[in-house]
Structures are given as structure tokens and as C-alpha cells.
Amino acid sequence: VKKNRSSNEVKSKTDANGVIMLPSKKHTAYIFGYPDSTFRPNGNMTRAEASAIFARLISEEKGEKIIGTSTDFKDVSKSDWCFSYISYLEKYDIIKGYSDKTFRPDDYVSRAEFVAMTVRYYDLFNDVSFTATTVKYTDVPSSYWAVKEIAYAKNIGWLNGYADGTFRGDNNITRAEVVAVVN
């Protein structure tokens, strides 16, 4: 199989089992394990860890270094491991804090918060149009704060809810779920 994209030719390969493998863009790691050599796929992800992921993805795509200069969040200081990531994402409006001017970096990120961050990230590089503002998840009413982001992600095929028809947006997102969405 051969496809011409501009002046670059892209060819697929077939592996030893006859499976066609399409070429993919090489990228650097966006998520890491822990110092004890575990990944903890069923563990919850913090807001700081999610910020690090999006900062790494944006910096790679834009060819920029992750540099944090300041933050408006009163609970994030320059000595925090996540300071540069959070500061970097603030300039792109990927992350939102709370009305008390905190970010709560050590709190777990919810499924809805992660989807909202993902849609904002995607909007940096693509044209995001919120054509649908409702979803068929029984627990996401039209008044839910992230309904348009959830609807967008569902409509372009990023998300599946649970078998019982719910999305569970206020539940913490696991590291495995994050990898599935980002990939």
C-alpha cells in the first residue's frame, strides 16, 4: 500500500503474522511510570500528572521547550515538580483552576476534567466546533459543566461510556483510561 502525502511517500509494512502496520509518527514519551518501576494502570491520575502529559504533547508538537515562568494558582509554587508544566499550560488555556484561585495539583483528575483538557489541547491544532451539546449518557444532563466537551469527544469517537449508559464524569480517571484516550 502506498499513499502520496504532499512530497512525502508513506508506505505500510506487513509484519511476520501478515498484519498490515501503518506508519505512525514517532514521538517522545508523554507519560512515565513511578520511581519504584511501576506504571499503576488502575491508579488514579493527579491533576499535576495530567498537566505534565499535555505540556509534553504540546511542546513536542510546537517544537518548544517547557518553560514555566509564573502561575496564577496560589497553591502551585516554583519549587513544585509540576510548576513548569502547569505554567506552560496556562499560557495555552488548557487547564482551569477553581474559583478560589487554586489548581489542586495533587487532587485526582476526573473523567470530565480530563476530557475537557483533551478537547482544549486538540483545539490548539485543529478546528473544534461544538455542533452537539447533548449526549446520550444518562448521568450527563444538558446543564453539566463539561457537556459540550463530552459531546464533542463522544461524537468524534474518543469516548465510550459504560454499559449501563453512564459516563461517570465526576469519577477519577485511571492512568490506563488516560493512555487509551491520548493514544
Fraction of residues in H or I helices: 25-40%
Structural class: mainly alpha
Mean pLDDT across the residues is 84
How many strands? 4
Major sheet description: 2 strands, antiparallel
Radius of gyration, in Å, reads: 18 Å
Net shape: globular
Report the span from N to C terminus. Answer: 23 Å
Taken as a percent bin, the fraction of beta residues is: 5-15%
Low-confidence stretches: 1-12
How are strands sequenced across the largest beta sheet?
1-2
Short description:
It is built from five helices and four strands. It has helices at residues 47-62, 83-91, 111-125, 147-155, 175-182; strands at residues 2-5, 8-11, 13-14, 20-21. The chain has a two-stranded antiparallel sheet with strand order 1-2.
Walkthrough of the structure:
This protein has helices at 47-62, 83-91, 111-125, 147-155, 175-182, and strands spanning 2-5, 8-11, 13-14, 20-21. It has 183 residues and is mainly α. A two-stranded antiparallel ribbon has the order 1-2. A two-stranded antiparallel sheet has the order 3-4. A hairpin with a 5-residue loop joins strand 3 and strand 4 (20-21). Helix 1 (47-62) packs across helix 2 (83-91) and helix 3 (111-125) packs across helix 4 (147-155). The protein starts with a strand and ends with a helix.
